[in-house]
Amino acid sequence: MSGIIGLISVSAATPGAGEVQSTQLRSVSNSTTRVTGITPASGKRIRVIACQIHNNGSTETQGQVYFGEGAAITTTPLNAIIQGICQTDINADFGTSWPDGGGPVGDVDEVVSFKTDVNISSDFYVLIQWREE
Q1: What is the pLDDT of residue 65?
Q2: Are 91 and 54 in contact, with CB atoms under 8 Å apart?
Q3: Quick one: which of 127, 116, 128 has its CA closest to 30?
């Protein structure tokens, strides 16, 4: 697209990056069990653009979203994408975003996982926007 200010790039900040994808993930019946949320295509890696966690229950919990299949962020802190406390009131949210090309990036073929630190009475959700590179 061109205009008064010239050519405006509408592609990803990282050469070879795919289109932005948005995925909503939901916990399993025991939300303290690690769940694989996103698996990249073979030979690709995931770069996160934004991530929001949502507690639909009445129990305060610490939500964790991270790269890999480790038990928790505490065992592999360098793999952290987001970690935050979702308060005890219903519909508690926590989230953040990064400039395109500036967010956390996993290793090639590394999955995105999520879990809570205590089992909650209702579903725990993760909303994540990401690209494959």
Answers
A1: 96
A2: yes
A3: 116
Question: Where do the DSSP E strands lie in 69-109?
Answer: 80-86, 92-97
Q: Which two tokens stand for residue 116?
A: 């809570």
Token reading at 37: 């949320």
CB 71, CB 125: distance < 8 Å = no
CA dihedral 128, 130, 132, 133 (to 10 degrees): -140
Helices and strands (H, E) in the chain, number of each type: 0, 8
Cβ 101 vs Cβ 47: under 8 Å: yes
| Residue where the block lists tokens 């939901």 | 26
pLDDT at 55: 85
pTM of the entire predicted model: 0.84
Contact, 35 vs 114, CB < 8 A?
yes
91: alpha, beta or left, given left = phi > 0 and alpha = psi -120 to 50? left
| Class of domain 21-132 (CATH, top level) | mainly beta
Are 84 and 63 in contact, with CB atoms under 8 Å apart? Answer: yes
**Which stretches in the chain have pLDDT values below 50?**
1-3, 5-10
Task: State residue 16's pLDDT score.
Answer: 67
Q: For position 3, what pLDDT does the model report?
A: 46
